Amino acid sequence: MSDKNSDNLTLQEISEADTKDLFRFFSENEDKRIREELISRHMYIAEILSKKYANKGIDYDDIYQVACIGLIYAVDRFKVEKGYEFSSFATPTIIGEIKKHFRDKGWSIRVPRRIQELSQKVNVARTNLSQELQRSPTIEEIAEYLNCSEENILEVMEARKVYTPKSLDITYESDGDDKDISLLDLIGEDDIEFSRIENKDFIAKATLKLNEVERKIIEDRYFYKKTQIDIANDLGISQMTVSRMEKKIISKFRKELERTNLIN
User: Fold this and answer.
1) 3-state DSSP call for residue 162?
2) What is the dihedral angle through the alpha carbons of 115, 117, 119, 122, rounded to the nearest 10 degrees?
């Protein structure tokens, strides 16, 4: 099967082919049938990741749509010869698109729902058209895509200036390069403090489920940087006992983290 030219594949052969073979075929000639099959096979990743961000201020359907766009980006960019699994490559790509969507949808003050809803559609239209046209779409093209007037599109863009911080989609011309640079590119990575806050909240809640001795071991080891021998002397037990208890506590934390992720 892997030696066969993808141009000669039937739809049945595509549906039955190994995923890695399909990625190899797709990298050769970008067959749209193979692309659709690869996207279809991995829609579950977009669904799982979308559910993790549900009930956080944006409709699930919008999040899922953005996740699907991220999945399409991942399929188009994945190179099977790199040696890693597609799910490992796709997950950060999809999460990145979802987080970008959340950042871009944060209205500073209350705005008409009509503007918010059209703004979401404009963002999706811009993403789809940019991929299709391989450049930033014009106002006219976005209006035609959404079957609405150019005045409505301009109204949304003006509303963004008034009601929100500067959009992360705004682009600047790059010196000596014909590719625009987005504000998101200039900002770089997410603020690490958000992750720290989430981690502290999880640790605080998980620690409450420990008994007094377990809590002392964790606090002394990871907050006060004590050695296992020092903790053993404080508690009047052996260093080996402290080591076993520490491993047991970490296992509890890991299970609690997995449970929390499933709920979220």
Assistant:
1) helix
2) -130
> How high is the pLDDT of residue 261?
56
Residue 248: which residues within 8 A CB-CB, separation 6 or more?
214
pLDDT in tens, 228-263: 888 888 888 888 888 888 888 888 877 777 766 544
Token digits of residue 147 = 């079957």
From residue 71, give the alpha-carbon distance in Å to each of 58, 161, 210, 242.
Answer: 19, 30, 40, 45
Contact assessment for residue 73 and residue 89, using Cβ atoms and an 8 Å cutoff: no
With contact defined as beta carbons under 8 Å apart, do 31 and 25 qualify? yes
Name residues of the chain where pLDDT drops below 70. 1-8, 57, 105-112, 158-202, 259-264
Do 26 and 14 meet the contact criterion of CB atoms below 8 Å apart?
Answer: no
Q: Note the pLDDT of residue 175.
A: 44
Q: CA–CA separation, 36 vs 158, rounded Å?
A: 37
Scanning the structure block, which residue is given the tokens 């002392």? Answer: 216
Give the Cα-Cα-Cα angle 172, 131, 93 (nearest 5 degrees): 85
Residue 179: C-alpha distances to residues 124, 134, 176 (Å): 21, 11, 9
Residue 243 CB contacts under 8 Å (≥ 6 apart), including other chains: 228
Whether 148 contacts 115, CB under 8 Å: no
Closest CA to 26 of 77, 67, 71, 73: 77
Cα–Cα distance measured from residue 233 to residue 215, given in angstroms and rounded to the nearest whole number: 16
Partners of 200 in the beta sheet? none
